[in-house]
C-alpha cells in the first residue's frame, strides 16, 4: 500500500483540538459526532487507499492528453471518479435537499485530505466541482441550483472556475471577457480563459463552467464583473443534454506537476457566442467568487497537508528499508537502516511535525466554519467567522509553503534515488509547487492577511488570538511535565515575536504600506507557525491527559514527542522571522529598480 | 539573451574579497592578476552566453537518450563541447606541461560558475573530466598522466568518477566491485556502478573511467578500496584507440532534472572482465578519491550559485515585464510591473543576496586553495588549507541548499506561468535539487563539518574564523555609515549564535554524538550564512570605499543595498538555527522508531 490514511491522527485532532462533540451539538449536525466521523473516515480511507492512490504515479506517467479539442484523462481516472461519486463523496458537505450528505466541514476537511494525499491531480476535479456548487449555492436562483447541483453531486457533471485571463492573473480588475445580453435573458460570452483546471475532460457527461465576465457598459475594475454559468452542453428543460455550447478547449498546459489534471485554455464565443446565464446580480461576480475562493483556498491548504503527509509516509518507508552506514553513536557495528541516523530523523520529524501542526490548524479552522454557519447565537457565529477568516490565509499560505519544504525533504531522505522519477518522491515536490501559486499565490494570501485581516482592525483580531495562545501557555506551564513546561516557553517566545510583528504591521499598514507589505510573507509564515504550534501545545496536553488515563500509551507518547519537536524546531523559527519583518523592511525596497 | 555572465560582480568579489592581487604574487600565478582575470572572464562569458546557454532548455526538452548500449546527447551539445575544448576551457586550471593553462582556482571558479549557469547539464561533462584529471594528477604514474590527461584537456576524451553501487550510496565501505590482478600487471574489473554522470555519451572519442574496486584479499571497509583507470576504448602505445573495453552502459536514468546529462548504469566485466590499471597504491583509493571529491564538492557548490544566478536573472526579467495590480503605496494609478510590489522585491532581493553571498564565499575559498598550494611559506599554506577545508562543506552544502530556495522563489515570481514548463523557471528548480544530493548529500557535508572540521579540533578552527569575523565587525562598527553600523550588529548577533552552536557541537561531538549530529545540517546552514554574511560585510566596506573614491556609484550602491538586505534577511535566520541546534537536540531522536 502506497498511502495509509491517518484516520487515528485525524480523529484525535478532531476530538481533542477541533472539538467535534461541540460541532455535533450544532443544529443540523446532530448525527455528525465522533462515531459518525470515524465511520465516514474509515470508508473514505478504503476508497482512497485502494482505488485513488494507486493511480497517482500512473497520472504522472500518463498525463491528460489533448487531441482535436478533446482531453483524454489518465486510464483509470474515469472509473475512479465514478466510484468516488457513487460513494457519495462529492455531496459530503452539500445540502441534503440537493442530494448531498450535509455533513460538517470538519468531517469534509479530513476526507479532502485523504483524496488529495491519494492523488492531488485526481482530487482537483471534485475540489473544483465543490467550488462551483458553493458559488451556485451562494448566488444562483433556485431553478439554477435545481438544474446544475444535483447532477454535479451525482458525479455526472463536474464544475470549473473561470477567472484567469492571459493579461489578468492575480489581478481580476483586468478581466476582459465580455457578456452580451440576449433578448431571451441569456448572455453570449466571448473571451479567453486560461489555467482552467479540468476545463475539458472525459470523466463526466457535462461540465458546468462558472465564468467571470463583463456586461457591456459595466463599471471598470472589479466592480464591473459578473458571474455566469455556462455549461459545455446546453441543458434541456427535462435535465437532458442539448446542443454543444460555444466554449472550446484549444490546448492544455505542459506542467511541472499535477500532470494528470488537465489545465485548459478555454475559448468562449469563437463560433457566434457561448450561451451563459447570469448568476445572482450583475456586477457582483467578484463577491460571489470570493465565497467560492475562500472555500477553495481552504481546500488548497488541505492539499498541502495531504501532499506533505504522503511525502512523509514514503520517506519513512524508505528510511526503514534503506541500509547505509553505521550509526554515529556506535550502537551498531554494521550498516543500519538510515532511520537510525540523526539527520534522517530530523528530516522525518520536521515533516511529521509540520504535517500534524497544519492538519490541526485546518481542522480547528473547519470547526470554526461550522460554528460560523450553524451556531444558533449570532455573536458566536460572528466570532467564529472572524476566526475562520483569519485562519484561511494561514491554512492556504502556510500549509502550502510547508508542503514544499516537506516534499523537498522527502526527496532528500531518498538521496540519489529521490532524483529518479520512478522512485516517486520527486512527484510530490513537483505537485506541491502549484499549491503555493494557484487560488492566490502565497503573496496574495499574505496581502489578505496584512490588509483585510490585520491592518483593517488595527491588529485587534490577531491580538485576540494571541491572548488565547497566552492562555494555553498558562495551562501548559501549570502542568507538571518537563515537556509541557518547555513547550510553554517555546510557545511564549514565538507568541511574543508574533505580537511584535502584529504591532509593526498594524502600525505601518496605512501610513507606510511598503514597509508592512515588505514583510507580508514572513508575517504569514510566522502567523502560521504560531497558530499551528499553539494547536501542537493543545495536542500535547490532550495526549498527556490521555496517557494519565491509561489510553493508547504509544500513540500518545508519539503525540508528545512530535509536539516537542515542533516547539524546538518549528516555533524556534519565529524570532528570526520577527527580526526580518520588524528590522528589515527598509532594505527590501532599497535597491534601485535599474540596479537589479 | 537568456543569460548574462556577471563579469563585473565576479571581478569585484575577486579583487575586493578574494584579493586576486595577492594570488598574482604566488609563484606560478604571476600573470594571473586582475587584468588577466578580466580578459579570461570576458572570453568565457562570450562562449557561455552565446553557445552554451541557448542549449539549456533544448537539453531539458530533448534529453540524452539511450539505445542499444549507446547514448545520444542533445543536438548541439557535441559541437558546443568541441568549442569549449578548443577554447582551452577544459585545461584552464591544469598544468601547462600537460596542455593546460595553469591558471589559479580563483579564475577557474568564476569560469565554472558561468558554464554551469549557462547549462548545468552540459557543464557536468567538463566538471567530471576535471575531477578525473585531478585524481590522476594526485596518484597516477607519469606514464598514466601522459597517456590520459592531454587528450582530456584537448576535449577528445572525457572522464568519469565511478563510486556508487546499488547497495553503496553514501557508504563506500560497502563497495563490492572487484579487481582481479592479471599477469601483465593489469586488473580485470567486475561489478555494477550506478549514477555515473556522462558514463556513456557521443561527445568524445573515448571515456576515461576512474573506478573504485576491491582487489581480492583486500581489507574490509574503506581501507580495502583501490582506484583504477579503465578506458572505454583501450589505448595503444602511440595514443591511438584500440579494442573496446568490457565496460558497457546498460541504461540511463529518467530524472527530475539535469535531463541532458546522461546518468549511466555501467556494467563492468560481463564479457570476461574490463581491463583496468591501478592508480597509485592498492587500498588507497578512497584517499585519492577524496582529493577529487573535494574538488568536485567545491564545483558542485559553484553549480548551486550558478543555477541560482540564472534563476535570479530570469525572475528579474519577468518581474520587469509582467504588469499586474497597482502598487500598494498608491504611487501608480494603474497596474504596474510586478517588480514594484514589495513581496516581489523581497523575493528578488533574497535571490540576489544569497547568490552574492555564496559567490563571495566560494571565491574566497578558491583563493585560499591557491595559497594553500602555491604559497612559498609552509605555515601559510597550512593555514590556508585548513581554512579551505573548513569552507568546502559550506560551499557545497550551503550554496546548494540556497540554490533550491532561490530556484523555488524564481518559480514563485512567475506565478502560474512558473508552473508551465515552457516558461523555463521550473527547470532551474528541478536541476537544483540534485545539487544538494550528489557528491555527498547535505547531511554528508554536515557530517564532515561536525566531525572532521569541528569536533576533531574541539572547535578551534571554527572559533578562529569567528575571531576574524569579529575583527570585521569592529571595522564595520568603526565606520561612519548607518549601513555599516547596522550590518556590524547583524553580523555580531549571527556570529554569537554561531559560537554557541560551535561550543555545543564541540562539547557534544564525542560524548553524545547523537546530539551533535542531530543539529548537523542546521549547523551547516548557520555556518554558511555567517561566513557568507561576513563576506557581504567586507563587500559593504569595499563598496563604501569605492563610492567615497567616486567609483561606479550605482554599482557600489547596489552592493551596499544587497549587503544590507543580506544582514536583515539572511543573517537574521542565524539565531533561530542556534536555538534549534542548542536547545532542540533531544527532541530529534525522542520519537520511538516504531512510532513513525
Automatic annotation (TrEMBL), chains A, B:
What residues does the Acyl-CoA oxidase/dehydrogenase middle domain cover?
Answer: 161-267
Annotated ranges, domain Acyl-CoA dehydrogenase/oxidase N-terminal: 78-155
Entry annotated with the keyword Cytoplasm: no
Show where the Acetyl-CoA dehydrogenase-like C-terminal domain sits. 467-591
User: Which prosthetic group or cofactor does it need?
Assistant: FAD
Keyword tags: FAD, Flavoprotein, Oxidoreductase
Domain Acyl-CoA dehydrogenase/oxidase C-terminal residues, every copy = 283-449
Q: Which family does it belong to?
A: Belongs to the acyl-CoA dehydrogenase family.
Q: What is this protein called?
A: Acyl-CoA dehydrogenase
Q: Which organism is it from?
A: Pseudaquabacterium inlustre
Q: What is the lineage of its organism?
A: Bacteria, Pseudomonadati, Pseudomonadota, Betaproteobacteria, Burkholderiales
